[in-house]
Write a structure and sequence with these properties.
- The protein is of the alpha/beta class.
- It contains 13 helices and 15 strands.
- It has one domain: Amidase signature (AS) domain (Amidase signature (AS) enzymes, Alpha-Beta Complex), CATH 3.90.1300.10.
- It is 37% helix and 15% strand.
- The strands form three sheets. Strands 1-3-2-6-8-7-14-15-11-9-10 form an eleven-stranded mixed β-sheet, with helices on both faces. A two-stranded antiparallel ribbon has the order 4-5. A two-stranded antiparallel ribbon has the order 12-13.
């Protein structure tokens, strides 16, 4: 069942067609075989995984009801606390930390639903990365072409799912770190509304932007994982009051009445032919004829950069003072620059953020969904430093997130839906109003059912 969906695995385990331990052993074997090619995992917790799988099998033999993710292997970006492991956050410095005493909330919730944690995944250092290239653990590699980037910073998460090592993985998204890897690796990713899913016991980057969310090869699996993780958590103040609002049962609802528009202006500038083609395919499939402009999106990206750099610098200031040489130089230099941004500029960026959020929310009075590219291009080659953006050769690393940053800046829910172009896939963002993950997932599901959005299997 290497390529079975999470839903298929859970059904087979619950029906007794397969044991959770056999599913787990198959996943561990596939990780052992393919991870040397993809460099997705930084740690495999085989002993823990086997113990959890046996517990699931024991519960079934005793006639107990199993959860909706019974026996489903999953893995997490290594900024999630995993009991017994140091929480690396992609860094060298954190390797000196004591092992975590408790799992992150979202791990606890997935395991309560029957899922089996199999390991921790490679990522860009301290999540300040769009490429998936880690100087300490090596680059995570794209299953569609191991010479290409997975995207970052949740590169190992996307590579593990796209490569079939696990059907589900968790990542984080501050400026695009779920949507960019989803696009480059050709899988579905969900960045929920800011505050929807608990971030408790994960290593932060920019607290006012940070989101956690799942990757999967289908919308049904994405919804199953998302539903299992929902719920208020007093350990995360941003996630204190939201009720559980299941979306999986609503995936198949018709989308005929939804008002779907395409983001124009800024979101058309710089797009490669592949990004433009993917947008055209999706818009045609959904009958999205209307184009709207998200006001001041370019300024929003600039303000996001200012807040990211300054909040990130404040978090890492002591490490920068005492262990600067142990950082990835590219990360270190951006953090140092952030520490020197004048307070007046930060204040201006925050004021603009409030204005911008109000303007964008007004758009949802007239539309239910906005479509935008996820990345300006398909996956670049590992080590590539520049690319052509709007006819101009530009630095690659800081510009991969040009279409994602103006959205996460104000915490909107987004599904990245992969369009299986040849030779490499690329994704489209399906953006909804706050707390309407259900709408974004329904649209993604409709695209999947029509064959427009699919996670292609790589040849590995």
């Amino acid at each position: 069942m290497d390529w079975a969906s999470a839903a298929e695995i859970a059904r087979a385990v619950s029906n007794g067609e397969r044991s959770a331990i056999s599913i787990t052993e198959a996943a561990l074997a596939r990780i052992g075989r393919l991870n040397p090619k993809l460099n997705a995992f930084t740690e495999v917790v085989a002993k823990r995984a086997r113990a959890k799988a046996r517990a699931v099998d024991s519960a079934r033999s005793e006639g107990k009801a199993l959860g909706p993710l019974a026996g489903v292997p999953f893995a997490v970006k290594n900024l999630f606390d995993v009991a017994g492991l140091a929480t690396l956050a992609g860094s060298k410095i954190n390797r000196d930390h004591k092992p975590a005493a408790h799992d992150a909330t979202l791990i606890e919730r997935l395991e309560a639903a029957g899922a089996v944690l199999v390991g921790a995944l490679n990522m860009g250092e301290y999540a300040y990365d769009f490429t998936g290239e880690n100087v300490h653990d090596g680059a995570s590699r794209n299953p569609h072409d191991p010479g290409r980037m997975t995207g970052g910073s949740s590169g190992g998460s996307a590579g593990a799912v796209a490569g079939g090592l696990v059907p589900l993985a968790l990542g984080s998204d501050t400026n695009g770190s779920i949507r960019v890897p989803s696009s480059f690796c050709g899988i579905f990713g969900l960045k929920p509304t800011y505050g929807r899913l608990s971030r408790a016991r994960t290593f932060p980057f920019v607290s006012s932007f940070d989101h956690l969310g799942p990757f999967a090869r289908s919308t049904a699996d994405l919804a199953l994982a998302y539903d299992a993780m929902q719920g208020a958590d007093p350990d995360d103040p941003a996630c204190a009051g939201r009720p559980v609002e299941p979306v999986a049962p609503a995936l198949a609802l018709r989308i005929d009445g939804l008002r779907i528009a395409v983001a124009g202006g800024y979101f058309r500038k710089g797009a490669s032919p592949e990004a433009s083609e993917a947008m055209a395919i999706v818009a045609k499939a959904l009958g999205a004829m209307r184009e709207i402009e998200i006001p001041e999106a370019e300024r929003a990206r600039s303000a996001a950069y200012v807040i990211t750099a300054t909040e990130g610098a404040a978090l890492h200031l002591d490490r920068l003072r005492t262990r600067a040489r142990d950082f990835d130089p590219a990360v270190r230099d951006r953090l140092i620059a952030g520490a020197m941004v004048p307070a007046a500029l930060v204040n201006h960026a925050q004021k603009f953020r409030r204005w911008y959020r109000a303007q964008v929310l007004k758009l949802f009075d007239d539309v239910d969904v906005i479509l935008a590219p996820a990345t300006p291009c398909t996956a670049p080659k590992i080590g590539q430093q520049t690319f052509v953006l709007d006819g101009v050769e530009m630095p690659l690393r800081p510009n991969i997130g040009i279409y994602t940053q103006p959205i996460s800046f104000i915490g909107l829910p987004v599904v990245a839906a992969p369009v299986p172009l040849k030779p490499l896939p690329i994704a489209v963002q399906i953006i909804a109003a706050p707390w309407r993950e259900d709408v974004a997932l329904r649209v993604a599901h409709a695209l999947e059912q029509s064959g427009v959005a699919l996670a292609p299997r790589p040849n590995i």
